[in-house]
Structures are given as structure tokens and as C-alpha cells.
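Hey,
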Amino acid sequence: MKRRSLLQAGALAPARPLDPARLIRQAGALGLAAWAAAATRAQPLPAAAECIVPAKPGGGFDLGCQLARAALQRAEPARPALAIRYLPGGIGALAYRQAITQRAADAGSLVAFSSGSLLNLVQGRFGPAPAREVRWVAGLGIDHGVIAVHRDAPWPSLGALLAALKVHPRAIAFGAGGTIGSQDWMKAALLARAAGIGHQAMRFVAFEGGGDALAALLGGHVQVLAGDATEVGRQWDAAAPLRVLAVLAEARLPGRWGPVPTAREQGVDLLWPILRGFYLGPDVADAQHAAWVHAFATAMALPGFAEDRARAGLQPPALTGPALDEYIARQLSQYRALAASFGLPLRR
């Protein structure tokens, strides 16, 4: 199959591509090291703190909060474990609005986000507030998009799926978390573009979160899942009847994903890295924000975190401080260009 470059087709045109190796170096030079040096200035974390999952249980946000709870507990075993609270609504919109209104100064309310949250922000799906109005805390690592089908599906490869999609686009339903313009919709739309059909021709069924979309795939209600490695990996480990056709990464992922080819290997230049991390409300005091950043920097540097992260399906780097801010700013810029290429409305 001739490689189809989605970048050349105008799907995404970043000014400068993200370089994971450079970000790892920056995480040490500007993030973890800087905040570790500020240990003596950092305040203690709130006595009662919670991690808000802006979706139903079982998805990537949930996994991120669980990983954060384990990492922070390892770093400070005597403090109460981080509570986890579920607040579904608009794939993060409800939690974001509460963070900037009702909990703007609440240092005890940590909210999980992903790159999909950033994509929603540039489209104004979280309301008129700009992204700078929350306080970014930490990125645990990078998830990646995957394309999965039921184990009994007739498509053994990504190429076979694209060929079928080109001939009968309305016969194949994509299931994903979020509505039109969400990151899962974007993955499906870019795949449709790679098949040579317009995104208007594809069938897309929206769910509140990735967990519901995955359940719909396993139940035969949709035929293809444009999902995330963390969500799919847990079901795969549990022997769910899945076939993963491609990972949307620069190179093959380690561990369970080793046998699964990338989209690029199969002639489709489609990448979808997903940062998973946390933010606080916009009015949280500098010292309290620094305490959280320092706590994550310390926890993510301890032995055991890398293994936990790998089991969760995330890849390096862990980001805090300027390295995290740069990554988020660059993704926001890329997503704005991508949304514009599909004619989606953008926040002014």
C-alpha cells in the first residue's frame, strides 16, 4: 500500500513536531529537577485530597487517577490515600467548568485530563474560558491511539479495513468516546481520510467515554473502535475478544503491544499521542500548586513508578514545570490546525 501522508494532506501541520526524546531531557532539566530543588519551599499537600475522573469508571481518566494515587502513596505512605471521584459529563466539560467556577481555589481537587481535553478546549467545548485559566500540574506519561475491531471481524489488517471502508463506508460504524470533534472522532475521521472518503461519509456512534465505546465493540453494536492503548490494553489482558489492527505511534510499543504494527508500517502516516495528566483550578495559590508539582515530581522519580506506568500502558516522558507547559502549548496549536482542517468551529 502506498503511504498516505495525512500531514501532507493538511490534516495536521505543526510548526515543529514534538520530539519525545527532547521532552524527556527537558523533563529532567526543567521539570523534575527544578521542582525537586524546590522541596524545602513546597507546602504539604491538603490533608483531604481527591482526584476527579471526568467520566464513568473504567476509562483512561480512571486509570490515570489510580496510577497517581499509587505513585503518591508510594512517595508518602503515611498520608491518606488520594480519593477518586467520578464526575462524568461532556467528556470532561462538567469537571472543567466546576474547576474554574465552584472549585477555582480548591487545592484539594485534582482533575484528570488528556490530550483529548486539550482538543475540546480549542473548539470551545468546555465553554469560553481559555486553557490558561487552569493550573497544569503533571503529565504521567504518553498514551497512544489504537484502532481495534472484534476478534471475529473480517479485517485482518488496517489495509483491509481501509479497503472495505472505501467501498462501503456506511456499512462500518466507528464507536468512540465523545461526539464530533472529539479525539476519538478525529482518529476515525483521519482514518476515513486515509481511505479516500470524506469524514461526512463515515458512520460514527458517540459514547460518554472510552469504556462505553469499548463495551459497544465487544457487544457487536459497532464494528471499529478508535480508542486508546490504556483502555484497550486492560481488556486485552483480560482476554476480551479483540483484534488490534494498529497503534498510532512513531514506533511499535513495548510489552503486550510488540506484535501490533503501527499505522505507519501499514502505509498510513497517522500518529496520535495522548498526554495523560492533571490540573487544578485557576485560583489555587502558587505555593499550593508548587506542592502538587513537587509531590508528582518526587513520586514519578521513585523506583516503581516506571513499572506501574508501563503496566498501565503509558510511555515516557513524565512531565512537570516548563516541559509540561511547552508540551501542552504545542498540542493546543496542533489541534487548532487539525480542527480547522475539518471545518470545525474554534474558540475565538
